[in-house]
Design a protein that fits this description.
The chain is of the alpha+beta class. It is 33% helix and 14% strand. The chain has helices spanning 13-17, 30-43, 51-55, 103-106, 147-158, 160-167, 192-227, 269-279, 387-395, 397-404, 421-424, 433-473; strands at residues 48-50, 60-61, 71-79, 93-95, 113-115, 124-126, 135-136, 141-143, 187-189, 285-287, 292-296, 305-306, 312-316, 330-333, 349-352, 360-362, 371-372, 376-381, 427-429. A hairpin with a 7-residue loop joins strand 15 and strand 16.
Length: 474
């Protein structure tokens, strides 16, 4: 019999009797103990201020949670807690703001710090002006801070020290949560000149991130205008009408057009609308497979993750594809079998093939030589075809709908793993090289701005962590 020793630790008794009055062991995790001890030493050498004293209690809040959210087909575009972390999120749902008493508090403004408060706690995002176009889920905690401290606060709460304080008060059995008031007493060190430097770095990263979003939107506008593609109007689709005159999402199709597929998604009316529109486009359409050198998926193999990043390669998963900055990245051992088969290279186009199918990303400097999951298609275009153009088209409404039409599965949507014929069969408009390159370069620039923002932000956070350690040691 193997006896696994209990993990035990001692903490001062006054930790249990102040603030939260907590006796659950998770509240005294090894990481939070280390963070408390570190901040205790820092407070002896430099001033610390509670978060609530820096920004005010009313500026740390979340809207009142509703038991049911009033979704509507024609309401205001809505983003979930996880979607606000996306590089360029697109709304999948809409809400009727007339049925939300404090709808204005659900919106966010440019510069708000958003903290995930349920599920995976402690993920941070600084809202860009793009998020002002949406109603945001009440789940993220909103922190409103002045511009002269906003970046520094974000950086500190992103360090392992600050994030430990964010996560430590979490509670719940199935799904963990934190509440705004539990962030009030987080100690924030005052670091004079370094504070201004860190703040400026984070704000600079934010400018690059917003520029990237604007470029990605510009690529979609250019795509639509240069190709002469009409806006797809869901309201005009030929769905049947119910007995009381209410439109329901059902439709008729001739048995001769079934192509041995009985799933509704394969025959959705939007797909025929797209085919008709593409037939009238300025330029011819070709199959995606004809513009690619290869579309592939690596073999499955047992993943061995490592804690020491020097012995591993960052491992990209499908959930990371839409994110502004990949979070909770694991490292796969460099000694794993077939490790070379899962390495991705610069300018490849990645496409999720299971779960949420059809998410697109381009491998630029930030992801070059990472490893990636077998749940991602690798699309390598021919030399004369700009991969940025292919990514832009597949990311468009037209591309997304055509990809979705290829999916199958009951619980989890899928597109064939080894059989890439379904993806190769997707229609793509092929304009002259000049247009492809113009749109492709804009798309490249967007992802380069995102990578630059992530690099600047990471450097600022690491610098802050180093400085905190240095204060303690001196």
């Amino acid at each position: 019999m193997i006896i696994v020793p209990f993990q035990t630790r001692e903490v001062p008794s006054h930790w249990a009797t102040r603030d939260e009055l907590r006796l659950d062991a998770s509240f005294y995790s090894q990481q939070i103990i280390a963070a408390r001890l570190l901040m205790g030493k820092i407070s002896q050498k430099t001033k610390t201020v509670k978060l609530v004293d820096l920004v005010g209690a009313k500026n740390i809040y979340m809207p009142a949670l509703k038991v049911t959210i009033p979704f509507s087909d024609y309401g205001y575009p809505y983003l979930t807690q996880s979607e606000v972390e996306f590089f360029l999120p697109a709304s999948r749902k809409r809400v009727d703001v007339k049925k939300i008493d404090d709808a204005d508090r659900w919106k966010v403004r440019n510069g708000y710090i958003l903290v995930s408060q349920s599920g995976t706690i402690g993920r941070l995002t600084i809202a860009t002006s793009y998020l002002e176009n949406f109603i945001i889920s009440p789940n993220p905690i909103r922190i409103i801070a002045n511009r002269d401290i906003r970046g520094f606060l974000y950086a500190f709460l992103s360090t392992w020290v600050g994030n430990a304080f964010v996560k430590s008060p979490s509670y719940g059995i199935t799904v963990n949560h934190i509440l705004p008031h539990q962030l009030h007493n987080i100690p924030i060190p005052q670091l004079d000149n370094l504070q201004e430097e860190i703040n400026n770095q984070i704000l600079d990263a934010q400018r690059h991130r917003e520029t990237g979003q604007q470029l990605l939107m510009k690529a979609q506008v250019e795509l639509k205008e240069m190709l002469g593609l009409a806006t797809l109007e869901g309201e005009s689709l030929p769905y049947l009408v119910g007995e009381i005159g209410r439109t329901i999402k059902s439709f008729e199709i001739s048995s001769s057009k079934l192509e041995l597929r009985l799933d509704a998604s394969y025959h959705a009316p939007i797909l025929q609308t797209i085919r008709n529109t593409l037939a009238k486009a300025k330029f011819d359409t070709v199959k995606l497979g004809l513009v690619c050198e290869r579309i592939s998926v690596p073999n499955r193999f047992r993943r061995h993750y490592v804690e020491d990043t020097r012995n591993g390669v960052p491992f990209l998963q499908g959930s990371h594809i839409p994110q502004t900055k990949p979070t909770d990245v694991k490292y796969i051992s460099i000694h794993s079998s077939h490790i070379k088969d899962v390495i991705i290279k610069r300018n490849w186009v990645l496409l999720t093939r299971s779960g949420t199918v059809g998410r697109i990303a381009i491998v630029r400097e930030g992801l070059d030589n990472w490893a990636a999951s077998e749940h991602l298609y690798r699309i390598v275009t021919k030399p004369e075809i700009h991969p940025g153009y292919v990514a832009a088209f597949l990311s468009s409404t037209y591309g997304r709908k055509l990809i979705e039409g290829k999916t199958y599965g009951a619980v989890v949507d899928e597109i064939g793993e080894k059989d890439t014929s379904l993806i190769e069969d997707i229609d793509i408009v092929l304009p002259p090289k000049r247009i492809r390159d113009t749109i492709g370069e804009i798309t490249f620039a967007a992802y380069d701005e995102k990578d630059k923002a992530n690099r600047i932000e990471e450097e600022a956070i690491r610098l802050l962590e180093y400085r905190l350690k240095e204060i303690v040691n001196n």
